[in-house]
What we know:
The structure is a single chain. This protein is α+β, with helices and mostly antiparallel strands. It has a single domain (3-200), classed as C8orf32 fold (Roll), CATH 3.10.620.30. Helix content is 35%, strand content 26%. It is built from seven helices and ten strands. It has helices spanning 3-15, 42-49, 55-63, 69-83, 89-93, 102-108, 113-126; strands spanning 23-26, 29-33, 38-41, 85-86, 110-111, 134-141, 144-153, 158-162, 185-192, 197-200. The strands form three sheets. The protein has a six-stranded antiparallel beta sheet with strand order 1-10-9-6-7-8, sandwiched between helices. Helix 4 packs antiparallel against helix 7 (113-126) and helix 6 packs across helix 7 (113-126). It is globular.
Amino acid sequence: MDFSKKLLKKLMAIQFKQVHTNWLQTIYSYMVDSKYRTKKRLDKFLKDQFKNPSPEVIKLAKELRGQDTDATMINILKWVKKNIKYTLDKDNFGKNEYWANGNLTYSLGKDDCDGMNGLIYYLARLAGIGKQCLYCAIGDVVGGGHFWVVYYSTSQEKLVVIDSTYYYTPKQIKIRQPFKLGEHYKTIWYLFNEDSIFKPR
């Protein structure tokens, strides 16, 4: 195992210990377009978005920067909640499932959980928050499958949920409870960012 993988494994153990004790690095492709049965690797789905980011979205990300990364995350969460309307993929794209990239969700001004929370991840990265502190999660919540963001606050040394759709709260990071599976978020299928995909062992 090379040094970067060892470091990543150690970081995962620290950040996600309260969620699950053992994580397996893996490869997984998810259906991002149900009409054409198009699948894409979860990490690649995120990484591809940064090849040609919209100048408008870059400008917005810079405007949403706060005093620190915690404040930036809350600014982004509030902006997405206020400006992007929750809309089912069936109504938005005429498909049962469609994962839009951040540029498209921003330009349409509407999407479901994967679009809205995917935009949060996209804006956070463009605002300068490191990928080692950001992951997208897919899993079960009360009511079915869901996509949300988890953020590791280095100043507070805790992992918190950032979610604009299912269980939204505008509370500042320092007064939030650390993320744990239970009352709202039942299981995690996969955690991923641009570089890695993990699943509970």
